[in-house]
Amino acid sequence: xxxxxxxxxxxxxxxxxxxxxxxxxxxxxxxxxxxxxxxxxxxxxxxxxxxxxxxxxxxxxxxxxxxxxxxxxxxxxxxxxxxxxxxxxxxxxxxxxxxxxxxxxxxxxxxxxxxxxxxxxxxxxxxxxxxxxxxxxxxxxxxxxxxxxxxxxxxxxxxxxxxxxxxxxxxxxxxxxxxxxxxxxxxxxxxxxxxxxxxxxxxxxxxxxxxxxxxxxxxxxxxxxxxxxxxxxx
Length: 234
Ligand SMILES: Cc1cc2nc3c(=O)[nH]c(=O)nc-3n(C[C@H](O)[C@H](O)[C@H](O)COP(=O)(O)O)c2cc1C
Ligand SMILES: Nc1ccn([C@@H]2O[C@H](COP(=O)(O)OP(=O)(O)O)[C@@H](O)[C@H]2O)c(=O)n1
Ligand SMILES: [Mg+2]
What we know:
One of its GO terms (biological process) is riboflavin biosynthetic process. The chain is of the alpha+beta class. The protein has 2 domains: 2-92, Arc Repressor Mutant, subunit A; 98-229, Beta Barrel (Elongation Factor Tu (Ef-tu), domain 3), CATH 2.40.30. A hairpin with a 4-residue loop joins β7 and β8. The strands form 3 sheets. Strands 4-5-11-10-9-12 form a 6-stranded antiparallel barrel. The protein is elongated, with a radius of gyration of 21 Å. The longest helix has 19 residues, at 74-92. It has helices spanning 2-7, 10-21, 32-39, 43-55, 74-92, 111-116, 118-128, 143-153, 213-216, and strands at residues 28-30, 59-64, 67-72, 98-105, 137-141, 158-160, 163-164, 169-170, 173-182, 185-195, 204-208, 224-229. The structure holds flavin mononucleotide, cytidine-5'-diphosphate and magnesium ion. The site of flavin mononucleotide (FMN) has 20 residues, from α6 and β10.
């Protein structure tokens, strides 16, 4: 996503916004002439910007007889959400805290293995400042929080690099500082972790921490939890 953002300029972002205002989040039909008028630009400019947005993977498009069908890709939407997060910071202050609600659940039992691998563990110690407990606490996010999660993606993450050993390659992951809150209390030094090669959908959140949270704050499957997520610099 950051690659997409870096690859387009302000003019393309403005074009993307105009497309989204016209319904392109879920797909819409546009003509270069119509878009040009809305952008107060020439047809040629509108056409060039559409081409650029398609090249960087911010939109999918299909040429029709009477125009083109345009839909924002996930990267395109993330790019606009990032703009949105910037404006929130401008108008609503620095409080960029994202609160995600979910219930504790049992996952596939793989988190333990991945977190323990030295190629990740050394980076966690170096970049998060602690040795995480071997595993990820999994939460089933509420539907509203699945949408809210996109705001988390707009916060600056701590990056954990991919690496390889003799057998295979391991994917990168993003971590965001987080506080885990329950009715009984809160736990502060945790991180949400989003492995690039996860087998879970975006309705599942994984949290890592120095301690086993099930013991530390007494969690069981089905229990409600709120995770407050902040950006790396927050
Ligand atoms: C730090 C980290 C790195 C991961 N890297 C990979 C990977 O390279 N390939 C892969 O198939 N899954 C990878 N996984 C994802 C796990 O296979 C799985 O999607 C999930 O994290 C397991 O969670 P669970 O056991 O809590 O359900 C990684 C998980 C973590 C925590
Ligand atoms: N900081 C953490 C990480 C994992 N855990 C728990 O530790 C166990 C091992 O994690 P895991 O990711 O391998 O297992 P699952 O999440 O797949 O069930 C699970 O029961 C997690 O819920 C925890 O309580 N606190
Ligand atoms: Mg887990």
